[in-house]
Amino acid sequence: MTDTPAGTAGGTFDAPVLVLVDLETPTTSAAEAVSQVAPSGAGLALVAGAAALTRADVVSLVLGPVGADASAALAGAGATRVLAADLGDAGTQAGAVADALVSAVRAVEPAVALVPSDHHGKEVAARAAVLLGSACTADASDLRVQDGALTASKTVLSGSWATTLRVGGTGTTPVVAVRTSEVEVPGPGAPLAVEALDVVLSPESLAVRVVSREPAPTTSGPDLVGARTVVVAGRGVDGDIDLVRSLADPLGAAVGATRVACDEGWVERSAQVGQTGVSIAPRLYIGLGVSGAVHHTSGIQGAGTIVAVCDDAEAPILQMADFGVVGDVRTVVPQLVEELGRLRG
Ligand SMILES: Cc1cc2nc3c(=O)[nH]c(=O)nc-3n(C[C@H](O)[C@H](O)[C@H](O)COP(=O)(O)OP(=O)(O)OC[C@H]3O[C@@H](n4cnc5c(N)ncnc54)[C@H](O)[C@@H]3O)c2cc1C
User: Fold this and answer.
1) How confident is the model over 240-250, as pLDDT tens digits?
2) Residue 304 to residues 66, 133, 148, 169, 295: CA-CA distances in angstroms?
3) Does the beta carbon of 293 sit less than 6 angstroms from any atom of ligand 1?
C-alpha cells in the first residue's frame, strides 16, 4: 500500500469488513503488562483502507483492553464498531489469535477479514482461513471491490512479476493479509462503544503455552513493517550501525538490514528485508551500502521514494533508485545528517 489508505479504489461491499488491528509494540515486559492497548499507525491505515471497501460497518478487532483514546483513534480512521477480545497470555500465539478472528468472523459475517501482512499476520491468516474453510492470500496491496468480489495486487517471483488476484467468491469469508505502511489518517473521532468478543480457544491453541518472555534487543526502532521511513544497513556500512542510526534517528526512521548485515550480526534477524525477511512499503527507503540484489529488492516493491548511497556506480540499487549517490557511506552520511540538521534549524 502506498499513498492512499490500503490503495483502495472501485466499488464497495454491502457487508461489513473486519480488520484485525495491529497494536503498538509494548515497551514494557509481560510482567508489567500494559493496562490498555493502542493501535499502531499501520493498524489505523488498514482500518482506513477497509473503510474505502464497504458501505456497511468497518469492524475493528483489537486484542486487549481498549480505552477511550484507542477507540477514538479507530473511529477517526473509519471504524464504526470495535470488538475487543482478551486472550490473556495466549494473545501472542497465532493459533489463539486465529481463534479470535474466526469468532469475530462468525459474529460479524464480513465480506472479508483483513490482517497485517507481517510474519505473525500471515500465520494467523492461514490458520483462520483453514478453520473457516475459506480462501487466503498474503502480501496483498491495492485492494478493490469489483463485481462484488475483492481483487488485490501482489508481486511474485522475487518481485519480477505483478499479479492481480480475485479473492473469495465461494460464500465463505476470505482472509487477506495486507501490506500496510503508515499513511495520514484523520485525527481521533468520537470514541465508539467497545463490544467484548467471547473467544473459545481451541485445544490446539491451548497446547502452546508461553513459558517465558523478554524483550529482544532491537536495532530497528519504530515498527519496521509499518514504518514511514526506513534506513537499511547493507554490507557497505561495515558494521557501523551508529552511522546508520545517526541518519535514522533524526528522521524517526526504522532500521532495516540486508541479509549480509544480519548474517554478520550487525542487526537482528527480525530486521532483514527481502525475500526471506520482511516486506516493507515505506514512503521513503534509504539504502546505505546496499547493492540491490533481487532477493533484497523484492521486499521493497511497495516503497515510495528510493534513495541509495553506494560506492559502486553499477550496483542494481542505483538503477531503481529515485535518488542515488555514488560515494562512500562514511563520507556521504555525515554530510546528509549535517544538512538535515541545518534544514531543521
Ligand atoms: C534464497 C535467497 C534468499 C535471500 N534472501 C534475502 C533477503 O531476504 N534479504 C536480503 O537482503 N538478501 C537476501 N539474500 C541475499 C542477497 O542475494 C544478497 O546477497 C544480499 O542482499 C546482499 O546484501 P548487501 O547489499 O548488503 O551486500 P552486497 O551485495 O555485498 O553489497 C554491498 C554494496 O555496498 C557497496 N559498498 C561497500 N562499501 C561501501 C562504502 N563504504 N560506502 C558505500 N557503499 C559501499 C558495495 O560496492 C556493494 O554494492 C538471499 C539470497 C538467497 C540465495
Assistant:
1) 999 999 999 99
2) 32, 36, 30, 32, 18
3) yes
Q: Which of 206, 259, 208, 214 is nearest to 232 (CA)?
A: 259
Q: What is the pLDDT of residues 80-105, one digit of tens each?
A: 999 999 998 888 899 999 999 999 99
C-alpha 20/C-alpha 63 separation (Å) is: 8
Q: 538503477: which residue's cell?
A: 319
For ligand 1, whether the C-beta of 275 sits within 6 Å is yes
259 lines ligand 1 (CB under 6 A): yes
Biggest CA pair distance of the chain? 59
Contact 247, 221 (CB under 8 A): no
The CA-atom distances, in angstroms, between 111 and each of 41, 60, 149, 235 are 24, 14, 9, 45
Q: Whose CA is nearest to atom 49 of ligand 1?
A: 291
Tell me if 295 CB under 6 Å of ligand 1: yes
- Going by CA atoms, what residue is nearest to atom 47 of ligand 1? 312
Cα–Cα distance measured from residue 199 to residue 21, given in angstroms and rounded to the nearest whole number: 16
Q: Does the model's pTM come out above 0.70?
A: yes
The single-letter code of the amino acid at 263 is D
> In a 10 Å sphere around its CB, with 0-12 CB exposed, 13-18 middle and 19+ buried, how is residue 212 labelled?
exposed
The distance from CA 334 to its chain's CA centroid, rounded to whole angstroms, is 30
Question: In sequence order, what are the residues at sequence separation of 6 or more whose Cβ sits closer than 8 angstroms to the Cβ of residue 19?
Answer: 43, 46, 47, 50, 58, 59, 60, 61, 79, 113, 114, 115
User: Which has the closest alpha carbon to 331: 341, 319, 339?
Assistant: 339
